[in-house]
Structure formats: structure tokens, C-alpha cells
């Protein structure tokens, strides 16, 4: 393996650095984007039960909900302005949702850039390998097979290394972006259901006050 890296020339160094960076991003995103961490099961139904009893909401519970998960942060934004009209609540949820989606997509642009740069670095190594080969021909002629083999080897190794970097990076980039998109759609559904629950809570008739017992002032 070390011999192959040496054969690829100096361009192998940035390719290896980008490979380590891509692996770190992939592992970090897989850990962060676990479904139970982004969309805790049962959380949406629990919050809707809170919303139906509008006067029982505790600000401390809302703060805990906000720190619970990305979905909790989104739903807490709606509960913060629950006494306002539906359109204003929806605008607040959409505004917070954009920030949440941006955080879920963290590092994915960098991973996509690595996927795009990998083949270009491989091509650059190929060009330098061919240049080295032709310079060798100019110096020693076509009779030196080792010189020709070295230039061709550098071209092939660097190209293969660039593709080995780009293909997995592109696959994981598309997969992780699709996962984020799915989470965003699910959070939109949860937000819509929360708005409906808030409307139900607003439409519910207030509890009738208890009648005073006979003899009470």
C-alpha cells in the first residue's frame, strides 16, 4: 500500500487528507442524524396533548422540550406563540425550521465538495504523470522502459485514488442529504398536527366554574 501511495506522486497527499476528512464527516453525521435523536418517538403526540390544554403549559417544560431534539425545538417554537393567530404561529415555526434544517445539513456541503474534488485531483495526478513521462522521453528517449512505466504508474494510481475517494463520498452525500430531507418532511407533518391541536384547544369551551354550595358566601 505504501508503495502505491509513493507511486501516485505528491497528489496522493491531499487525496489522503480529504479521505480522512470525508470519513470523519460521514461518521459524525451518521451519529448525529440518528432518527431517535432527531425525531424522538412519541414526542409529537405528547406535545399535542400539551397543546390541547393550553392553560396547563409550563414555560419550564417548553424550555426542556426546546433542548430535547431538533423536533422538540421546532414544536417549542410553536408553543411559545400559541396564543397568537395560526398564521403567525406557522411563520414562527417555518422560521425556526429553516435554522433546524440548516443544522441538520451541517458538513454535507463539505462532503459534496470532497466528492467533486476527488476526481479532479486524480486527473491532476494523471496530467503530472504524463508530463513526467514525456519529459523522460525527451531526456533519455523511448528506450528507458522504467521511465515510461513510472509516469504511467503515477497517472493510473492517482486516477484510481481520486475515484476511490469520490465514489463513496458522493454516495454518502446523497444518502445523508436524502435522510435530512425525510426528517424535514416528518417535522413539517408534526408541526401541522401541532397547529391543528392548538386550534382544537382554542375552540374547546372553557371549563364551567363550580357552583357555590348552599350556605357558602
Describe this protein's structure.
The protein has 217 residues and is mostly helical. The protein has 9 helices and no strands. It has helices at 2-7, 12-32, 35-38, 43-52, 59-68, 70-80, 86-104, 108-140, 145-203. Helix 6 runs antiparallel to helix 7 (86-104) and helix 8 runs antiparallel to helix 9. The relative contact order is 0.16.
Give unreliable regions as ranges.
206-217
Total number of β-strand segments? Answer: 0
How would a textbook summarize the main sheet? none
Portion of residues within helices: over 70%
Average pLDDT score: 83
Count of helix runs? 9
The share of residues in extended strands comes to under 5%
Silhouette: rod-shaped
Q: Structural class of the helix and strand makeup?
A: mainly alpha
The Cα radius of gyration reads 30 Å
Strand-and-helix sequence, N→C? HHHHHHHHH
Q: How far is the N terminus from the C terminus?
A: 93 Å
Summarize the model shown.
This protein has 217 residues and is mostly helical. Helices cover 80% and strands 0% of the residues.
Name a few traits of the molecule.
9 helices; 217 residues; mainly alpha
Amino acid at each position: 500500500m505504501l508503495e502505491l501511495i509513493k507511486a501516485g506522486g505528491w497528489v496522493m497527499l491531499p487525496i489522503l487528507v480529504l479521505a480522512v476528512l470525508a470519513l470523519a464527516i460521514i461518521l459524525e453525521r451518521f451519529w448525529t442524524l440518528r432518527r431517535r435523536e432527531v425525531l424522538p418517538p412519541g414526542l409529537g403526540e405528547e406535545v399535542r396533548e400539551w397543546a390541547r390544554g393550553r392553560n396547563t403549559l409550563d414555560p419550564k417544560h417548553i424550555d426542556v422540550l426546546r433542548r430535547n431534539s431538533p423536533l422538540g425545538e421546532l414544536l417549542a417554537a410553536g408553543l411559545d406563540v400559541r396564543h397568537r393567530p395560526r398564521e403567525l404561529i406557522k411563520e414562527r415555526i417555518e422560521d425556526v425550521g429553516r435554522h433546524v434544517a440548516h443544522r441538520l445539513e451541517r458538513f454535507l456541503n463539505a462532503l459534496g465538495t470532497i466528492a467533486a474534488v476527488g476526481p479532479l485531483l486524480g486527473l491532476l495526478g494523471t496530467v503530472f504523470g504524463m508530463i513526467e513521462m514525456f519529459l523522460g522521453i525527451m531526456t533519455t528517449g523511448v528506450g528507458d522502459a522504467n521511465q515510461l512505466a513510472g509516469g504511467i504508474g503515477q497517472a493510473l494510481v492517482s486516477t484510481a485514488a481520486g475515484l476511490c475517494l469520490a465514489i463513496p463520498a458522493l454516495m454518502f452525500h446523497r444518502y445523508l442529504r436524502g435522510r435530512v430531507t425525510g426528517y424535514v418532511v416528518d417535522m413539517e407533518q408534526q408541526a401541522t398536527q401541532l397547529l391543528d391541536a392548538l386550534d382544537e384547544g382554542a375552540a374547546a369551551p372553557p371549563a364551567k366554574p363550580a357552583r357555590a354550595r348552599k350556605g357558602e358566601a
